[in-house]
Fold this protein.
Amino acid sequence: MGKESFLLYKTFYEPVKSLSLEDKGALFEAIYNYQLSATEPPVSSPVYMAFLFFKNQFRLDEMKYKDTCNANKTNAKKRWNIKNAGASARKRKDADNAHNDNDKENEKGNDKENENEIGKDKEPLHPLQVFVKTLREVSRIKTQLTLADCEKLITQYGQELVQDILLAMENTKGIAGKYTSVYLTLNNWAQRRKLTARGTDPGAANINRPYKPITADQL
């Protein structure tokens, strides 16, 4: 890891609030182990899925941090070159001075553009958006989840059912060519799943089942 600190976002609480205190402690320990030694909990760990939300956001934050550092270095070098060019330009003809002034204005515009680009991604992603980024096929669907979409889905169906259906979508061949919206597809599949559950057992939709990935043909 390249930084001495890391961020924990408020949106991370939603997928972990249902964990027991013991599992929350294990998750906290796993986060520090990852930050200090890049080690991860085993896949069989009860906190592994929750840990993935944090890990993927940490990786995104690390990339943004490196991009910001590189952009700052580039801008500093540009300003240094502009300063030296200005000293030399004073010895040139008026026409050359005017040309250099235009170059400086262009450099300032580029600096501002870089700063705007760096600031665009400061808004943290919802953990569900981070999870979708790990799914190769689902992340290719044209219209991805917004923050509002994520909050509505988690509130209406719960984290486990939403993740379960996302994995089912990932295992569906040609999913990106069949559907254009992650939210609409997920919502339709979830409604169908709930209707199927009610048809076999009126209380099935309210049973807390352990999280387990399934394939699309099990829907």
Residues 199-219 have pLDDT under 50 and may be disordered. Residues 48-89 form the longest helix (42 residues). The chain has nine helices and no strands. Residues 88 and 212 are 68 Å apart (CA to CA).
